[in-house]
Design brief:
mainly alpha, Substrate Binding Domain Of Dnak, Chain:A, Domain 2, two-stranded antiparallel ribbon, membrane, phosphoprotein
């Protein structure tokens, strides 16, 4: 019995040894038969750390073999063990040729794109079209008597008076220009007539004195006419500045005020219509947006109304001052001319600092124009 147990023990211990020898021989045979792959081998140093010299060499060979046109700033291949499900992970750095950036091992981030100018223009056109539609609808509604309009009675009365006065001042200006043209022609004729009388006074001895008197009279009338013509032209220039610059500038502000009033009424009507409708999740954002637009146009309307009021006030003060001086000038010059009071006529021009041009030098020479 002891022999059998010893044999059994011997057999039990010798069988694993035999299997281990077989496994070692099989592994050596497989190692000899399979080709060596540098990427699959993981050598270990004496300290137990993985030697990655082969891995760096493989990465260097890979970089050399990659085309230069790929533009990759950094390429790295990391090998893992045989037990991992991934054979290798390729990590790439930032791509220099585009706007896309990538952190190491992180997600791809796209850079913010600039706004398209065409889309901005399209948005401006859309807002302009919507505003024009609302204003046109408001104007048509007012003309048909269906829409309501905001009216400032006091300001509207002042604007109507200003427009009526502008028409009357334009009529005065037109008549004064006609008078200046006719007076210029008369002065020119009197000057020519005086020269003709003077010539005949020298050639007709029997009528020397008669022609001489008439020549002196016509020349004096021509001189006084030139003085009156200077006063009238000064009056025309001042009234023209008042009508076509000062009043016109105020009326331009009035036009802007009326446009702001139409926009204000248009958005006010739009807000009133939305408030009369149902209030739900769809209409509340529209009502809020309409309220914001209405408030913005209301502020613009109030500002333009204030500007018009201030300009009308200053215009009235300036108009009274300018017309007072110009009407006094016109009256005194006309009265002195037809009364034959040459001294008073000249004194009137000195009072208003009017300088007359010498006869024959009305137009500058070609050298002065250059």
């Amino acid at each position: 019995m002891s022999d059998c147990s010893n044999d059994t023990t011997t057999l039990g211990t010798s069988k694993p040894a035999t299997e281990e020898v077989k496994s070692n021989s099989e592994e050596s045979t497989m190692a000899q038969e399979s080709p060596k792959n540098s990427a699959a081998e993981i050598p270990v140093t004496s300290n137990g750390e993985v030697d990655d010299s082969h891995e760096h060499g493989f990465n260097r060979d890979l970089k050399r073999s990659l085309p230069a046109g790929l533009g990759l700033s950094e390429t790295q291949i990391t090998s893992h063990g045989f037990e991992s499900t991934k054979e290798g992970v390729i990590e790439a750095g930032a791509f220099q040729g585009g706007q896309r950036t990538q952190t190491k091992g992180g997600p791809v981030i796209l850079a913010d794109e600039t706004k398209n100018p065409a889309m901005e223009k399209l948005e401006l056109v859309r807002k302009w079209s919507l505003n024009t539609y609302k204003c046109t609808r408001q104007i048509i509604s007012e003309k048909l008597g269906r829409g309501s309009r905001t009216v400032d009675l006091e300001l509207e009365a002042q604007i109507d008076i200003l427009r009526d006065n502008k028409k009357k001042y334009e009529n005065i200006l037109k008549l004064a220009q006609t008078l200046s043209t006719q007076l210029f022609q008369m002065v020119h004729t009197q000057r020519q007539l005086g020269d003709a009388f003077a010539d005949l006074s020298l050639k007709s001895l029997e009528l020397h004195e008669e022609f001489g008197y008439n020549a002196d009279t016509q020349k004096l009338l021509a001189k006084n006419g030139e003085t009156l013509l200077g006063a009238i032209n000064f009056f025309i220039a001042s009234v023209n500045t008042l009508v076509n610059k000062t009043i016109e500038d105020t009326l331009m502000t009035v036009k802007q005020y009326e446009s702001a009033r139409i926009e204000y009424d248009a958005y006010r009507t739009d807000l009133e219509e939305l408030n009369l409708g149902p209030r739900d999740a769809n209409t509340l954002p529209k009502i809020e947006q309409s309220q914001h637009l209405f408030q913005a146009h209301k502020e613009k309307y109030d500002k333009m109304r204030n500007d018009v009021s201030i300009k009308l006030k200053f215009l009235e003060e300036n108009k009274v001052k300018v017309l007072h001086n110009q009407l006094v000038l016109f009256h005194n010059a006309i009265a002195a001319y037809f009364a034959g009071n040459q001294k008073q006529l000249e004194q009137t021009l000195k009072q208003f600092h009017i300088k007359l041009k010498n006869p024959g030098v009305d137009t500058p020479s070609w050298l002065e124009e250059q």
